[in-house]
Amino acid sequence: MATFTQTKKAGALTALALLTTLSFAAHADKLADIKAAGVVKVATFDANPPFGSVDAKTHDIVGYDVDFANALAKSLGVKLELVATNPANRIPLLQSGKVDLIVADITITPERAQVIDFSTPYFVTGQQFLVPADGKDSLDAYSRARIGAVKGTTGEQALHQRFPQSRVLAYDDIPLALTALRNGNVQAITQDSTILAGLLAEAPDKAKFKILPDLLSKEEIGVGVSKGETALLKAVNDELVKLEQNGEAAKIYDTWFGPQTKTPQPRSFKIEAK
Q1: For residue 273, what are the contacts with CB-CB under 8 A and spacing of at least 6?
Q2: Rg (CA), the chain
Q3: β-strand 209-211 against 167-171: which pairing, if any?
Q4: CATH architecture of 30-124+220-257
Q5: Which residues, in sequence order, are bridge partners of residue 106?
Q6: Helices marked H in 96-207 — which ranges?
Q7: What is the widest separation between alpha-carbon atoms in the chain?
Q8: Which three-class secondary structure state does DSSP give residue 175?
């Protein structure tokens, strides 16, 4: 016959096991949740061409990231729901459960990797400066300048590290930073080279500006996934590698960065399994 103490201990263990089960159930499997819901919610940009911007004719969000988001949704067998975001809101949207994935030109960094998981890189770029056409050609010439960056980006962090004596002004998105450059509020702005090329290509006064050739930093871009969602991360990685192997990744790249585009740039990377 069990004593009261044994019964109490057994009851405590049962309660603990139940709590553990409930905890796992609450955490669940995001991949299973997505498939059950029939939709994957993806955070992407709506003002950062060519990665994500609103098409003037269709009013849909289109871009390099959007094409990858569509491919991922198709591989999961679900519909795609895009959630427009800016750089500073990407990770909070994922952590709060408002989106399932980040496909928004997000650079893989050790700091970010502490709070979210990343796929294998599906794009590689670098940070550059956009300056007035009559500005100096050396990055170091702007070491004490007023420089515009986008809030929550690696460009903002890189500026503080490389040019600690510069004055960094942070903006919500790159079009606002360009406006600040036009108005003389900053002497340069920084962002991924491809985004700057797209921004300059669309600018009616593009002859007034130039992109400096030197890189502030090299950037590897990945898909953001919530911590611990190993099944979803594997599904994303498998599809990214498959897109490389079947040639679709190169086709998506050429759509947005090929010779016929406003932002031509040779593809110098391949998507590889981690």
Answers
A1: 120, 237, 241
A2: 22
A3: unpaired
A4: 3-Layer(aba) Sandwich (3.40)
A5: 222
A6: 154-162, 174-182, 193-202
A7: 92
A8: helix
Residue type present at position 135:
G
**Could you report the per-residue pLDDT of 205-244, keeping only the tens digit for each?**
999 999 998 889 888 999 999 999 999 999 999 999 999 9
Q: How many residues make up the chain in this entry?
A: 274
CA distance 148 to 59: 28
| 263 close to 194: Cβ distance less than 8 angstroms | yes
| Topology of the domain covering 126-218 | D-Maltodextrin-Binding Protein; domain 2 (3.40.190)
For the chain, where do the domains classified as CATH 3.40.190.10 start and end?
Answer: 30-124+220-257, 126-218
Give the tokens for residue 108: 């893989």
Amino acid at 17: A
Distance CA 87, CA 227 (A): 19
The CA distance from 233 to 264, in Å, is: 31
The 10s digit of each residue's pLDDT in 252-269 is: 999 999 989 988 888 879
Three-state DSSP at 118 gives strand
| The pair of three-digit structure tokens given for residue 7, joined into one six-digit string | 């019964």
What residues have CB less than 8 Å from 165, skipping those under 6 apart? Answer: 143, 144
The tokens of 77 are what? 């067998």
For 121-142, how does the pLDDT look when each residue is reduced to its tens digit (9 = 90+)? 999 988 999 999 999 999 999 9
Q: What would the two tokens of residue 133 be?
A: 């056409």
Q: What angle do CA 192, 193, 196 make, to 5 degrees?
A: 90
Those residues with Cβ within 8 angstroms of residue 134's Cβ, 6 or more apart along the chain or in another chain: none
What integer pLDDT is reported at residue 28 of this predicted model?
60
The torsion defined by the Cα of 178, 180, 184 and 190, in degrees rounded to 10, comes to -50
